[in-house]
Queue: 2 jobs
Job 1
Amino acid sequence: MNTAVAQTRGRGRGPSPRAAARGGTARGGTARSLGAILVVVVFAAPIVLLVSGSFRQPGLAPPPTPELVPDPLTPGNYGRALEIGGLTRATVNSAIVSGLAVPLSVLVASLAGFALTQAPARVTRALIAASFVALMVPATALLVPRFVLFRTLGLTDTLVPLVAPALLGTSPFYVLVFYVAFRQIPGELFDASRLEGASPWRTWRRVAMPLVRPVTFAVAALAFIFTWSNFLDPLIYVYNRDLFTVPLALRSLSTVDISDYPLFLAGAVIASVPVLVVFAFAQRNFLQRYRGSGWLGR
Amino acid sequence: MARTLTRALVAVLLAFAAACSGGGDGAQGTSKGTIRFLVFGDPGELAAYRQVVAAFQGSQSDVKVQLVEASDRADLIARLSTSIAGGSPPDVFLMNYRYYGQFAAKSAIEPVDTLLAASKAFRERGFYPQALDAFRWRGHLQCLPQNISSLAVYYNRDLFAKYGVAPPRAGWTWNDMITTAVQLTRDRAGRVVRAKESEAAAAAAVYGLGVEPSLIRVAPFVWSNGGQLVDNDRKPTRLALNSPEAKEALRSFLDLRLAYGVIPTDQEVEAEDDEARFTNGRLAMVLSSRRATPTFRKAAKFDWDVAPLPVFDQQVGILHSDAYCITRASSNKAAAWRFLEYALGERGQHVVARTGRTVPSMIKVSRSSAFLDSAQKPRSAQVFLDAIPTVRRTPSISTWPEIEDVTGGILELGLYRGESVDQVVAKLDAATRPLFARGQSP
């Protein structure tokens, strides 16, 4: 009955504005989906080739054209890549470094970002300018001073130089991201917290951080990706093969004969999996919050 | 661009190191303790170095060696430059003669002549003099060569037999090589094809020859034709490729693609490099050093061998050699030397020679079964030893790595885009003059 009425109304007056909006939304949704599929296809192609290549039998001449399904499939490449490339030990080392550096980065960057919102405007401006200047200094320009510093402290050939940047938030960029996020929170909330006698530490922990959870997950994901894929620092500071992290081990594996490239590709898959897992976990938080009811979604 | 930045970084780091370093004072230390040994290589080579270190440590108990592994030369130079500038370099490192000048010019290397003269493990005359001479800087031997190699022609014997083409032989000429390469450039039906144009190139299933457009590939042919690479081998100020002899050799090299169509196009090389194409059986000949041997041993499913380089006028090869160097800032040079004596002695060289990747620098070992293993390909391994008396080397100048970098792109334009020899020579000269002017020679 209701359907019939609706059809009658529809015939009599043409599509209602809401129905038209729904139609437009549906078309927009389809276009978005098609666009998303297109992007996925483009970006998935190298990953598909990476995975399929990792199952190709090693010791053969490289195929002139890519093989989507190698014959025979050789899953044993993964075991050999772990063994030859020292990837097991390297993965443990990278996990230790990331496990320490990522929470530390988030902690320091968020505290610094929060402090910037609470400081007098003149101080904040000066610190933000300093952060931009720090961002513009090439990492290679600091190689020697940092090397001398860690050598003097007796910390070269340890994992400490790889974690140490987290004591400064890893990058001024993360501090600025938190600063921008905290500035979006109405200042009245912080004032109210202060009036209720909360300390700055408690305000940061109880008021500020819960409101920027999506940003926290995003910074954590970025810090993890940076730390996990950091090649230059371990190359300079670490000598002992047992302390190599994943990028160094993978680099070593990349020098195998061209006929053994399936082993290198298997190593690359192993090195990529943790990043994909962390990103999948983090994006559930920051994207859902963005779409949903958090303050960022309003 | 990235390479240029890396070079600039290395130069800055070395300048810093020079400012920080004090003078050398010969082999010092107690010949006890731990030393660091920086090398690069593929997993097979690194395993051989680990074996050498383990054998050395098993042979005595005073010196321990920490092996610092870099993956390739760029990584090794980054590690070395930073640690030298930071005042904590490795005690021993492995370096090619074309790259050590930048460190020798800054006095970052401890000369080893007096140590070698006093050594009871080996004598100077036990090494190939061609390799030793490449590491002399201002009259002092800076490093001790670990290997010596030269360019050779790897060829697919099965393809030669299939098409009834005579295999290369000693003394063959450049024109012989062109004729051979033309006869072996075939389409899918096995017909000879002149793959000069891009459409014809697409029809070529097998190419006759593979060679990369680089200065170190061109150099032996320039020398062979009576030309010179630089104006003055001791104090080079410019490339000397504008002589008629050098131009003729360079023109012959650049004609390989567009005049004869016997080498793959640049797009084909990008898609599949010469080593891969050769192992796939679709390249009849490829010019490479001894480094290619392990790959072909493992992956090539056909019969292959090596032959000497073709000649224009006289037989000339180009030196490839890496050496062990002791850093001037090493705190225990005596222990470092003890390790060198072991690694470069017969036992150490045997271990590294078994990787198949290098020709031992010690004459006795190079003539032993560790290198001339009749059970292993190539059966004509003697070709590498026969070439040693004819090898010449690139000049010792601190900016040589940069010179090689900038010339590669220009030679590519000549080979694949048909720029004339005069244009190529002019561009090479313009691009390299500032680098020669900035470089330091012995």
Job 2
Amino acid sequence: MKVKVATKILEANDRIALENRKVFDRAGVFVVNLMSGPGAGKTSLLEKTLSGRGDLRIGVIEGDIAGSDDAERIEKFGAPVVQINTGGACHLDANMISEVLGDLPMDAIDVLFIENVGNLVCPAEFKVGEDMKVMLLSIAEGHDKPLKYPLMFQESSVLILNKIDLAPYTDADIGKIKRDALSLNPGLQIFEVSCRTGEGISEWIGWLRKRSRTSS
Amino acid sequence: MHEASIAASLLEIVSGQCRKGGYSRVESINLKVGRASGIMKDALIFAFDAMKEDSPAKEALLHIEEVPVTGLCADCNSTFTTEQEYILSCPSCGGSSFRMTAGRELDIIDMEVS
């Protein structure tokens, strides 16, 4: 006997993501799903963003396969932080986020960063309840990345190019990264920053501040 | 890369339907998988076969229909289908104001049960 199923395989995840989103919306929290390959500088970007946050109240969910190093780095800034260990999984999913929502003081957070597992592929597939996906690429990773890993560039609203202080020491063609990223996703907002020197960070924070206010 | 997560969700949905409908055995499952979904057909079948043992789908075969990437160009108003996984410009006019209309599917269509 043939039975019609007509269901999206990721429907269960999308449903939980929507529930998470309702919790965030009720509390007026703007949520950023922060994604990149390992070592591009996600936690460094968060440290810089926390340093320059002013009165913007920032909370963080850290996702890693193992360890709590990242959460400890965030804690030093006095920001509420929860560490998730995926125990091998290559991405965060909506259910993992749902399980830690109770551990965060939602009423005391304006912007919540969900730092995904370092991986340029899988996190782009799974909604976690975010308002916006932001991806980070360090220029040292090479200018071939947009065309090699197109999905994340297509799914993100913002691309932050990190480590631009290394430009003179690499052969990476920043113009090509931007051109290819924009042809994959013409609406992409691009920032060039260096978490090491602080270059470009205030533009990013200023933009984030404005964007989070217009949404919540 | 995360075909195992997808296979686990698939088994969960199929097992749920079996519980609801009182079916004891799934013989086959028809899926539609878009070429730009990031999911490899062979890896998904491998993961599904490895995980299906303790479920009503333990003898089920996966039939996967691959859906090519299809787009609609706002510059030249053409609809196009391509064999590529990703497109950077409209194959007809080279413009970039196109949107993908198919190719990201990851859907269970139906299943044969007894």
